[in-house]
Structures are given as structure tokens and as C-alpha cells.
Amino acid sequence: MSVHKDITKHSSKQNQLVQQFMILDEHRERAIDEAVQLCLNEQPFTTDAINQVTNEINVLARQGVVPQRKLVTIEMVKEYAAKLNEPGCS
Question: Its domain of life (predicted)?
């Protein structure tokens, strides 16, 4: 019975990490979208909020259950925004 409890506890912890990851990843995507929109509107922006969430995700990733995410640079946002402005992109 002890093994069953240990497995259940382990699975529960992994599930909790995945749930946290999904919430943080959603926040990261929203922060990226905001930065891209500011860039497209030629407004000043930073990647601070994106990278704060990215760092939180990477702390979770060190526990081996969820993937790491790359830090985002201003240049990366500008390149992505430029691609969105190309003809044929929507």
C-alpha cells in the first residue's frame, strides 16, 4: 500500500507542476503578444515581463517534468513583428 501512496503522491506532484507550467506559459504568451503589438504600433516595449515568466517556467523545468523556454530579446520581438508585417502574413 505504501508504494501505491508514493506513486500517487509522485503523480500528483507532476500534475501540479504541469498545471503551473500551463498557467505560466499562457502568461508568457500574453506578454509576448503585448510586446509584439506595442512593436507593431511603434510604441516602446521591453521583454522584462516575458523573461520574468520565462525564468519562473525554467525553475519548474529544472524539476524535469516540463520544458524550458528561451529568454526573449527585443530583437526577437522586432524580427517576429517584421515577419507579421510581410505581405501574405496575417
Answer: Bacteria
DSSP the chain: -HHHHHHHHHHHHHHHHHHHHHHHHHHHHHHHHHHHHHHHTT----SHHHHHHHHHHHHHHTTTSS-------HHHHHHHHHHHHSTT--
69-78 pLDDT, tens digit per residue, is 999 999 999 9
Q: Is residue 90 part of a domain?
A: no
Under a CB-based contact definition with an 8 Å cutoff, are residues 39 and 81 in contact? yes
pTM of the shown model: 0.84
Provide the domain limits for residue 61: 2-85
Whether 43 maps to a domain, the answer reads yes
Total tally of structural domains belonging to the chain: 1
pLDDT at 36 over 90: yes
